[in-house]
Amino acid sequence: MKGIILAGGNGTRLAPLTKVTNKHLLPIYDKPMIYYPLEVMRKAGIENILIVSGKGHSGHFLNLLGSGKEFGARLSYEVQEEAGGIAQALGLAEDFADGENIAVILGDNVFQDNLASAVKSFDGQKGAKIFLKQVHDPHRFGVAEMRDGKILSIEEKPKNPKSDFAVTGIYMYDARVFNAIKMLKPSGRGELEITDVNNFYIKENSMSYEILKGWWTDAGTFDSLLRANMLVAGKGNI
User: Does the domain made of 2-232 have the CATH classification 3.90.550.10?
Assistant: First the structure.
């Protein structure tokens, strides 16, 4: 299985920190943010990894990570010309994936769980898998509606969430994901939404899920960036 880390976007919620650098290059405790999903991929046994970044700071990723030798990985790079959504960024990875199943992590997701067993069990399987985490602020995320061990739907940033289980930025897909992306229409935000990709698999009853056991946070706001730093440092309230 191949790995893809999505590190694009403008990081506007973290301005002015992101005026001179990409959000995913900001520090979380003692390492750049991008190190965390990269280390998760490697611990899960994934060696071939694509970094998708915006064009403004793409050279910075190359300067920091190089070929990936330091991590025991083989890194490739792709540039997202403009911030068109997570699904649009993922669509740029079609040639890299080359028909294989893929594991995808958003570059601002920081978490404890080891994905090795999930990667091993999903490799070669059809369908998709997402990873959920119970949160106190589900309105910030895509929220899963579940019944009898199945996901019925995912609603993006709902005002009245149907559960408190957020869809984290960790996904696994078979090769059909790229055809699903090509069929998408931009949302009201003008972006191709990963929630619509996930609902494609839900509708055909080929979506599975796991609930993360350890702590998890994104780091896309000042509050969540602070929380990520505290959790990694071992000083946060889980």
Answer: yes
104: β partners: 4, 171
The first and second tokens of residue 146, run together, are: 């579940």
C-beta of residue 43 within 8 angstroms of C-beta of residue 116: yes
Query: Whole-model pTM above 0.70?
Result: yes
Q: How many angstroms separate the CA atoms of 131 and 129, rounded?
A: 7
pLDDT, tens digit, for every residue of 79-114?
A: 998 878 999 999 999 999 999 999 999 999 999 999
Q: CB within 8 A of 218, min separation 6: which ones?
A: 106, 108, 109, 110, 168, 169, 224, 228
- Distance, CA of 99 to CA of 115 (rounded, Å): 21
Cβ atoms of 37 and 109 closer than 8 Å: yes
